TrEMBL record, chain A:
Residues 1-141 form the NADPH-dependent FMN reductase-like domain. SUPFAM superfamilies: Flavoproteins (SSF52218). Gene3D superfamilies: 3.40.50.360. GO terms for molecular function: oxidoreductase activity. InterPro entries: Flavoprotein-like_sf, FMN_Rdtase-like_dom, NAD(P)H-dep_FMN_reductase. Keywords: Flavoprotein, FMN, Oxidoreductase. Pfam families: FMN_red (PF03358). Homotetramer. This is FMN-dependent NADPH-azoreductase.
Automatic annotation (TrEMBL), chain B:
It holds the Pfam family Bac_luciferase. Keywords: Monooxygenase, Oxidoreductase. It comes from the Bacteria. This is Alkanal monooxygenase alpha chain. SUPFAM superfamilies: Bacterial luciferase-like. PANTHER family: BLR5498 PROTEIN, LUCIFERASE-LIKE MONOOXYGENASE. InterPro entries: Bact_Lucif_Oxidored, Luciferase-like_dom, Luciferase-like_sf. Residues 19-312 form the Luciferase-like domain.
């Protein structure tokens, strides 16, 4: 499948470490076309409501990769009890129903367990509005799970495997559902 | 022109029923069935042929839209309209629409008035704002001025249309001091019917009503009733501003594709619409939304002739529009299919729509 892995922050390294780990695991599976998009490497303008193709340059290129994907993994840190503005801006840059027919899996990195429900209460509603097919369980990673190099907690590594597994599983089931629905129209 | 209406409105004789037309956005997209794209020159010639063919099939008007992005050939849409003026004899011609925000209204008027002279008085203008905004950079305008540019230039266009000598001052163009804007259309008002294009925004419908200019309402999908709010707002604003609503026409525009077999119409047109949208807007047209067209209450006029007639009449009942125009060539529809469609519409849909929308004997 066409996959996009997004690291949704321009600050720090943990979200990048977690999403890099995730991307490596997907690559190891083989059989997928993968695009890794680290928001730190882009200088996105603030959304002004125009069509995403009209920003031009690397912005439109990155947005197009996301729009072309069938499966999207979003990694986000938690800042001030919410997702970073950078990630919200990415959503604002995309069309209102930008995640229609796409399956989305989530990885959250945070400084403490207090923020566990932030993704549930703030990120998922945005994705729902944008018509994403959301994989309900997300992987929540705190500082203690990281070493200098990357994730060192077996628990988290297994959870990431699990997230990948269930996301592709949900995506291929969704594909069949869409096909059946589409066939039902008779054209 | 009614004394209460300052602006020039098109002459539409409803004794013959509503006007029925075709519009093209002059998109230049591959045919999704063959993945091949004809040359830009061929596409432009096909558009001219489409207009000629629509004329002989009895359509009232043919419109060409302006676009400045990839997959379009209508950048110089007035030049195409000029060729159409020469290729046709009776059918009305119009832009649909002209992006007035990024053009000089003087030049727009000069071009349109010239086409009006070539075509013996058949030209109209529809002024819009563009849904895609690449043309702001291309033509040297600031997107931050999106609203202000349209409002100012649209006002100036009306001013020029209604006055041969223009005194004007604004923010986005050098002032005009007793400027003689010619050539003038050869009619009593020496001007052209000019419409305001309205998309989804209620505020735009309100402004059209306030200004007392005729309104072109685009509706691509969804229930017809959802668009009625724009029509109501338009007419209410017009009444509030003291205009005579009876003489302010509304035109509607949307997809139109007919086939003797209902499902065939959907099967054939959907890949054009979906893949065309994918390329021009970056996301497809959801199949479920397209499928809704099978219901008579949806504005998507795709289906067999009987359903389409029913739908257009239902829309007329809701909107009391004086004109309807359909888009039947979007997304690389081959000219032969366009012609087959024009034949079906001309034979089975247009006469029925006209018959049922005729006004009763006027005094």
């Amino acid at each position: 499948m066409k996959v996009a892995v997004i690291s949704g922050s321009v600050v720090g390294s943990k979200t990048r470490k977690a999403t890099t780990e995730l991307a490596e695991k997907i690559k190891a599976l083989g059989g997928h076309e993968l695009e890794y998009i680290d928001l730190k490497e882009y200088d996105f303008p603030f959304s002004d409501g125009r069509n995403y193709l009209d920003y031009g340059g690397s912005t439109s290129e990155a947005l197009k990769k996301i729009m072309d994907a069938e499966v999207i993994f979003i990694g986000t840190p938690i800042f001030q009890a919410s997702i970073p503005g950078t990630l919200k801006n990415l959503f604002d840059l995309l069309p209102a129903d930008g995640f229609r027919d796409k399956t989305v899996g989530l990885v959250v990195t945070a400084g403490s367990l207090r923020h566990y429900l932030v993704a549930e209460q703030q990120l998922k509603p945005i994705l729902s509005y944008m018509k994403a097919n959301i994989v309900q369980s997300y992987v929540y990673i705190t500082d203690l799970d990281f070493s200098k190099e990357g994730i060192e907690s077996d628990d988290i590594l297994l959870r990431l495997d699990n997230l990948i597994d269930s996301t592709f599983n949900v995506a291929s089931a969704q594909k069949k559902v869409i096909q059946e629905y589409s066939d039902s129209f008779g054209f | 022109m009614d004394s209460r209406n300052r602006h020039i409105v098109p002459k539409i004789d409803l004794k013959n029923g509503i006007e029925f037309g075709i519009y093209t956005l002059a998109d230049h997209l591959p045919n999704p069935y063959t993945k091949e794209r004809i040359s830009a020159g061929q596409r432009i010639k096909d558009i001219i042929e489409m207009g000629r063919y629509a004329e002989q099939a009895g359509f009232d008007i043919f419109q060409v839209g302006e676009s400045h992005q990839d997959y379009f050939v209508g950048q110089a849409h007035t030049v195409i309209l000029s060729a159409l003026a020469q290729a046709t004899k009776t059918i009305k011609l119009s832009s649909g629409s002209t992006i007035i925000s990024t053009s000089d209204p003087v030049r727009v008027f000069e071009d349109a008035a010239t086409i009006d002279l070539i075509s013996d008085g058949r030209m109209e203008l529809v002024a819009g704002r563009a849904s895609r905004v690449g043309l702001y950079d291309l033509l040297g305008y600031n997107l931050d001025d999106y609203e202000a540019l349209f409002e100012e230039k649209f006002k100036l266009l009306l001013e020029i249309n209604e006055n041969e000598y223009v005194n004007w001052q604004g923010e986005y163009r050098a002032p005009l001091k007793n400027a003689h804007v010619i050539p003038r259309p050869d009619n009593e008002q020496k001007g052209l019917p000019i419409w305001r294009a309205v998309g989804g925004a209620l505020a735009s419908a309100y402004k059209a009503g306030q200004e007392g200019v005729p309104m072109y309402l685009a509706h691509l999908g969804g229930p017809a009733e959802a668009f009625k709010s724009r029509v109501d707002v338009y007419r209410e604003a017009a009444v509030q501003a003291g205009h005579d609503v009876k003489n302010l026409p509304i035109a509607t525009a949307g997809f139109l594709f007919a086939h003797e077999n209902m499902i065939e119409a959907y099967k054939q047109y959907y890949p054009h619409i979906n893949e065309g949208h994918m390329k021009t807007n970056g996301s497809g047209f959801p199949k479920a939304a397209f499928n809704e067209g099978k219901d008579r209450r949806s504005v998507l006029n795709v289906g067999d002739p009987k359903l389409i007639v029913e739908k257009i009449l239902y829309q007329h009942e809701l909107f009391n529009n004086s004109r309807y125009i359909g888009q039947l060539d979007f997304g690389g529809v081959p000219l032969d299919d366009v012609k087959r469609n024009i034949d079906i519409i001309g034979e089975k849909i247009l006469p029925e729509v006209k018959k049922h929308t005729r006004t009763k004997e006027e005094e």
